[in-house]
């Protein structure tokens, strides 16, 4: 058994910002960060256009520092939005774009590289950062969080101990900071116990590729493009983004609200369909996909925030739901929430965390966008104008859980044969799992799968971006080694029949530029 002053679960921007801030404030604190990825940034994925002012407070002078992350940032010089139909593109005038979606002056970054950079700084500050360590559950004592229990290692497919079996240890802490991201196993356990949210958390699925272009290309540097419309149907929330990571590198992504009604929607195929649009095809001409990944994005907003503090624990970043869909941003909120949590720990009063969030501007920004996502339940053409005025509506607009919106018989029936299929997408994510370990994806009741096949045509065989689920011999076959840890299956199964559990540490995707 290990014991520390502060235990942080998750080495993302939120967790690492909290760790750095803790050591800046009190060198004597023992601070440990546990992360299931094989290395810093390997499970980190975002768009991402970044508001970097939060780093000025966390790391004064960082802009002149020497390092790969700082040198590889690209300022947004051209900020554009388009509405796409299947064959045409309409440039949206700047005055019609909501103020929060203007990105001039922001920085285009790789979240994987930001996390690696922050992790190295945390280590230099004296933080103990451990990679490849999966936490299975929280330790509770009289309603208080006392630490975590780690995943058992060395089990075979039948969950029987092998010769190298290691029982999961316990790590105890005076304070546990949960920064395990959207659909994090421990944050879900915490929220299910303490509650507090008025609306259920809802999600989008983001699928992303890094594309290498010829040196002479049609996209150019310093460019950020967002689109609405094609390939999304008007009743599917979301849009796409295209960001210049370098003169010859473009980050391409498609976001789709997981409350879609279609039983056969394949997000990876939708991304490939987007790339066939004449405007997009011109931008990406002769490009090569060199990396891919997917993750769910918490977008329920202010009314979906759970109780953020309990005895011994604090929720931060995506684990708490700090994403503002009006701005399509969450990284700077993650960093600021990590700093706010650290300040509360050092002050010796966790209840000051929410006061710190308000001082950091997070609370007000989330409140202003409180009904932004909810108005799009009515579809794009009604939701878009309502989104411009939703902050003036004083009441809460309710939202059901995403899986409840799946509709029997609703099908897209796409005929496109994608250039990058789901198996290739999994390969490009670098995902790896031990072949002979137990599946970390658990189907609770096979009989429910048979019912799901009859009523909904087994949506899991479509919605998983890496084809983890396939119907074989009248049963659902799980290829857990293809899992990119996006979390979609635990959100979108119509019967909530799939549980995502943590595999052994060090497994999953191996992102480098996402």
Descriptive report:
The chain is of the alpha+beta class and 514 residues long. It folds into four domains: 212 residues, FAD/NAD(P)-binding domain; 131 residues, 2-Layer Sandwich (D-Amino Acid Oxidase, Chain A, domain 2); 29 residues, no CATH class; 97 residues, Alpha-Beta Plaits (2-Layer Sandwich). The strands form six sheets. Strands 1, 2, 8, 9, 10, 13, 19 and 20 form an eight-stranded mixed sheet that branches. A seven-stranded mixed sheet has the order 6-5-15-16-17-14-18. A hairpin with a 2-residue loop joins strand 22 and strand 23. Helix 1 runs parallel beside helix 4 and helix 1 packs parallel to helix 9. The radius of gyration is 22 Å and the shape is globular. The relative contact order is 0.16.
Output the keywords.
alpha+beta; eight-stranded mixed β-sheet; seven-stranded mixed β-sheet; FAD/NAD(P)-binding domain; D-Amino Acid Oxidase, Chain A, domain 2; single chain; 4 domains; 514 residues
Give a quick summary of the entry:
By secondary structure, the protein is an alpha+beta fold. It is built from 16 helices and 24 strands.
* Quaternary structure classification: single chain
CATH hierarchy, class of the largest domain? Alpha Beta
Question: Could you say which structural class the secondary elements and strand pairing correspond to?
Answer: alpha+beta
Largest sheet composition: 8 strands, mixed
Poorly predicted ranges: none
CATH architecture of the largest domain: 3-Layer(bba) Sandwich
Helix content: 25-40%
Annotation field: number of helices: 16
Structurally, the number of domains stands at: 4
Radius of gyration: 22 Å
Mean pLDDT: 96
Q: Give me the CATH fold name of the largest domain.
A: FAD/NAD(P)-binding domain
Bulk shape:
globular
Q: Tell me the CATH superfamily of the largest domain.
A: FAD/NAD(P)-binding domain
Q: N-to-C terminal Cα separation, in Å?
A: 35 Å
Percentage of residues in strands: 15-25%
Number of strands: 24
């Amino acid at each position: 058994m290990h014991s520390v002053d502060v235990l942080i679960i998750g080495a993302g921007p939120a967790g690492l910002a909290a760790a750095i801030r803790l050591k800046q404030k009190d060198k004597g604190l023992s601070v440990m960060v546990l992360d299931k990825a094989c290395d810093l940034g390997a499970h980190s994925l975002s768009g991402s256009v970044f508001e970097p002012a939060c780093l000025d407070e966390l790391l004064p002078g960082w802009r002149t520092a020497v390092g790969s992350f700082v040198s590889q940032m690209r300022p947004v010089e051209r900020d554009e939005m388009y509405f796409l139909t299947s064959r045409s593109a309409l440039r949206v005038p700047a005055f019609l774009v909501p103020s929060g979606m203007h990105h001039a002056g922001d920085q285009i970054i790789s979240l994987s590289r930001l996390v690696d950079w922050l992790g190295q700084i945390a280590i230099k500050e004296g933080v103990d950062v451990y990679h490849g360590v999966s936490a299975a559950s929280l330790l509770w004592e009289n309603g208080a969080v006392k630490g975590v229990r780690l995943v058992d290692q060395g089990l075979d497919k039948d969950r029987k101990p092998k010769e190298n079996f290691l029982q999961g240890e316990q790590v105890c802490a005076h304070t546990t900071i949960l920064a395990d991201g959207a659909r994090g196993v421990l944050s879900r356990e915490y929220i299910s116990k303490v509650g507090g949210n008025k609306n259920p958390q809802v999600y989008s699925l983001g699928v992303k590729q890094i594309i290498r272009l010829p040196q002479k290309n049609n996209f150019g540097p310093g460019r950020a493009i967002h689109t609405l419309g094609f390939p999304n149907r008007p009743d599917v929330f979301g849009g796409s983004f295209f960001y210049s990571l370098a003169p010859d590198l473009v980050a391409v992504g498609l976001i789709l609200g997981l409350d879609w009604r279609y039983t056969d929607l394949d997000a990876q195929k939708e991304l490939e369909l987007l790339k066939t649009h004449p405007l997009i095809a011109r931008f990406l001409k002769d490009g090569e996909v060199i990396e891919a990944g997917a993750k769910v994005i918490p977008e329920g907003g202010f009314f979906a925030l759970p109780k953020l503090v309990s005895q011994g624990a604090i929720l931060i970043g995506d684990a708490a739901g700090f994403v503002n869909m009006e701005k399509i941003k969450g990284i700077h909120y993650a960093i600021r929430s990590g700093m706010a949590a650290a300040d509360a720990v050092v002050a010796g009063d966790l209840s000051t965390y929410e006061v710190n969030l308000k001082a950091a501007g997070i609370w007000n920004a989330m409140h202003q966008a409180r009904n932004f996502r909810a108005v799009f339940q009515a579809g794009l053409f009604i939701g878009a104008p309502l989104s411009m005025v939703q902050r003036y509506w004083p009441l809460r607009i309710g939202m059901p859980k995403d899986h409840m919106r799946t509709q029997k018989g609703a099908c897209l029936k796409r005929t496109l044969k994608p250039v990058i299929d789901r198996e290739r997408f999994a390969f490009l994510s670098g995902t790896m799992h031990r072949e002979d370990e137990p599946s970390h994806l658990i189907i609770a009741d096979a009989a429910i799968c048979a019912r799901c096949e009859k009523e909904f045509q087994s949506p899991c065989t479509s919605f998983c971006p890496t084809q983890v689920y396939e119907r074989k011999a009248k049963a659902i076959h799980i290829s857990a080694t293809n899992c990119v840890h996006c979390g979609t299956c635990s959100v979108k199964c119509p019967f909530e029949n799939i549980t995502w559990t943590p595999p052994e540490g060090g497994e999953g995707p191996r992102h480098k530029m996402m």
